[in-house]
Protein 1
Amino acid sequence: MSNDNLDKKSTIHLNSNHHAEFININSHLYEELQREAEEKHFTTKNYFEIILDRHLRRNHMINRIWPELQIAGVDEELILVVNVIDKKFFNVRLHDKYLFCEQDKSTGCNHTAFVWMQAEDLDFRW
Ligand SMILES: [Zn+2]
């Protein structure tokens, strides 16, 4: 049974000097990114490259600023952050418009900043 109409894919060809790969992505996602690229006056190709580069630079920055912190678990609106050096755990809770660290009683400690920096990676139920 085909569900082509529900699940159309667009193909991106990734190519570097040493590797070439085809990736199929959801057509809706492709069209959204293409629209964003046009708004920002980039070609779609350049925009994909910028997004991938930005993603890696963000991850490097997170690792450089907080090498001791890791996300140990996510349970709906609760993010468990662990300091692997001190072996301490921190409950960062997602509220409507802010994150709150229950151990520091703070919206602005390292743990909330650490979670904000990767909020897009977490499957929050906003
Ligand atoms: Zn904290």
Protein 2
Amino acid sequence: MTELNAMLPFTPHPAHRDRVVVSDAFDLLRSLAPESVDLVATDPPYESLQIHRARGTTTRLTTNWFATVPNERLPELLREVYRALKPDRHFYLFCDEVTADVIKSQQGVGAVRLPNGARRCSCGFTYWKEIVWAKTTLDGGKIRGGTGYHYRAASERILFFEKGKRTLNDLGIPDVLMAPRAGVPGPAVKPGAVVRTLIEQSTLPGELIVDPFCGSGVAGVEARKLDRRFLLGDIDLAYLDPSLADLAPKGAVVSRASEVPADPREPPMLEDLVEGTASDEQLEAARACGWLDEDGAPSESLEKLLALRPKEREAAIRRALRIEAERAGEPLTLRAWRAWALSGRRR
Ligand SMILES: C[S@@+](CC[C@H](N)C(=O)[O-])C[C@H]1O[C@@H](n2cnc3c(N)ncnc32)[C@H](O)[C@@H]1O
């Protein structure tokens, strides 16, 4: 049960400024009154990330930062976004090439075009095109190659959808947006410059932007600078930009806003904790974070982690360590595990 369930339906009011909630993205979208939002710009944890992880091309991608949203739920995502948007509004969806293909095929976006060159989606949107975020060096001078071996991936896609008709604010902006990677900790954080362009293009001051997979909350950071309102949601606010921490619900852990602890160290295999074969420091840390009781018996939370398939376990362990508030005087080993949960490094 997320905090939003208690307040359905949620109608963003022009006088209510910005909000950050802990919520499943689908719950958040469903909770929104129809035609209540001016722009959705979001970046779901798409399933094809698993392909990159399986190939193991980079440390970042081989690391299970977060659970992914299966492809079969993408039509529901588009449907809910369409419902929540006011007429004559835009929707931007960050994804990679693989997911772009999946979405187009799900939405029946084929070769047939409307007279204006756009294409119809089965959910009601008009699909215009892929905008490309070209990843540059820090000074913006050159494209900087990334992962993969058949021409290294140095770009990401942003699918541009329209509900009804809304003219972009600046018709001179190209469909390749150049910007360096964000360079801040977090799951695939998008650069402020790219998100800012999307907001500037598709909203006016005072309008409401929603990002239900907000991660660092970059959409909120940029919306605030541009005097737009925002509603952000994520199941895990650990990586929320510290400037938004005051909007996070009470009790939500915003790790980036707190002091980053110790050198990262990965916890041992959970089975070693249960069998007591882990080191004394590790057993002490497991007791301190509530995975083991004083007698060394596994707690309910540890049992839940153990019940997960190994593939899903790492993301769940990271999340458990991130979202639980740090307690004063924690053992160093537990602080090191929390640092690992934030850092994304593997053993
Ligand atoms: C690719 S990241 C978004 C990064 C963000 N655009 C940024 O620039 O920081 C995807 C986010 O979706 C979140 N997430 C995963 N499953 C979710 C769900 N079911 N509902 C809401 N958020 C979810 C993850 O915690 C992660 O922060």
